Structures are given as C-alpha cells and as structure tokens.
TrEMBL record:
PANTHER family: HELIX-TURN-HELIX TRANSCRIPTIONAL REGULATOR, ICLR FAMILY, HTH-TYPE TRANSCRIPTIONAL REPRESSOR ALLR. Residues 17-77 form the HTH iclR-type domain. It holds the Pfam family IclR_C. It comes from Microbispora maris. InterPro entries: GAF-like_dom_sf, HTH_MetabolicPath_Reg, Tscrpt_reg_IclR_C, Tscrpt_reg_IclR_N, WH-like_DNA-bd_sf, WH_DNA-bd_sf. The keyword Transcription regulation applies. This is IclR family transcriptional regulator. The keyword Transcription applies. Residues 82-271 form the IclR-ED domain.
Amino acid sequence: MFVASDRARRAEAASALGSLERGIEVLLCLAAGMRPMNLTQVHRSTGFSKTTTHRLLGTLQRRGLVTRTGGDYTVGGRVADLVAPRGWAIQGRRLPGSRRAVLPHLLQLYEATRQTVNLAVPDGFELAYVERLYGHNRVKSPSDGLDRAPLYCTAAGKVLLAHDAGLRTAFLSAPALRRVTGRTATGRTVTGPAALERELAAVRGEGVGYAREEFAEGVCCAAAPVFGPDGGVCMAVAVAAPAGAMGTAALPRLGAAVRRTARQITGALSL
C-alpha cells in the first residue's frame, strides 16, 4: 500500500510539472506573438490539443496572468508587470504601471476596429512604438521591424507635435528638418513648416491627427493624444488601416474610436 501511495504521489507531481510547463509555453507563445491570439491560434502555435489549450488559458485567466477580450487572449495583469515593471520610458521619465493600465484599452480598440493598433511615445525628432497589436491581416508599413517613424508624416507624430509646444518649436526651427519636410515620403506628404503648422493647429482643434498615405502608400492612420498625470501629452494612440478600406466616412469614424480610447487611457493614468 505504501508503494502504491508513493507511486500515486510521484505521478501527481509529474502531472503537475507537465501542466506548469505547458502553462509557461502558452504564456511564452502569447508574449512572443505581440498581438491578440484566439484559441485556435494558440492551439496551433503550441501544438497542444484544443481542450488542453482552452483549459490552460482559462486557468491563466483566472489567476490574472492572461487577459481575454472577446475571443482573443494576450498576456496581462501580473505578467505585464513582470515584462515592464517600471512602465514605459517617455522622454527620459517612466510612468510606473503604465502598461498594465493602458493595455486593456488598446485591446478594446483592436477588438472594435480589427486594425493595427499602435502606442507611440516621442523620442527626439522621431516617435517610438512601445506597443503594437495586430492580426494576421495587418497593414504593412516602413516602420515594421524598426518600431520607429518620423513625426511629421505620421498621425501619431502629428499628435505629439501638435500638443507639445517645446517639441514642436524645436522641430520646426531645425534647419535640417526643414529640408526633410521638403522631401515628400509620398506624393501626399505635407511639406514645408508653414503647411505643417497649419495642420498641427487643426489637430489641436479636432483632437485627432490623420495621415492619409503620407508615410507609406496604401496606409491611412488616425491618432489621438494621451495626457499624463502632469497634464502634458505623453503618448499617442493610433490605428493604421489599408487606405482602400478607408472611405470618406470611414476614417473619421476610426478617428472617433481612437479619440475615445485616448481619453480612457488618460483617465486610467490619472488614477
């Protein structure tokens, strides 16, 4: 009886270790994907059965290690804190807990639009994408693989320029940048400091910035500002979509969704 009991304990321990390893594999899969994944995608990526995958995702979600939005999963909660415990760096400062506060809102925006969702912060005279959510049909961009883009011809960059007077003054007064803005990225890129200043004034008035195939042919974007606890702009949330899908009415609707999300994130950061 003692031997049988010992075997049962060893079998139970082996089973628990296997479940732990499989759970870690699911977390690594979601963390590496950098986008929401549904049950089928996680099942195919890990090679686990659908039943096992569903059970593991449910357990991880109940323990706060995975966040579910609709039918999609992503790492969240405690894991998000481990990935970026101090928050994002923004112009040399960090916003503690910012990723945990922001990510659920980005997921909701992705769920609502099913288009590429970007979160950008200023980095000198460029912007850096610190979070990107997308599906299999993501729109291709020159920023892929770099996670950086110019300020003057991207929706997020325009938003950051429009709401940061110091950054805007430095950008527009730099002689080298006058030459940069004089070279079009595409035939639709806004050129010249005066024209850019007029557009930035419109961005401040509307609360949304747009880029209509200015950074890349075939890509349209809408972005809105996120304000930090000190009241200054600290991030820009943006959605990029294929230009063909953005008719006359579609892009403003995307802008309204982005503006709503940016306001929610601003509120979350102030708590």
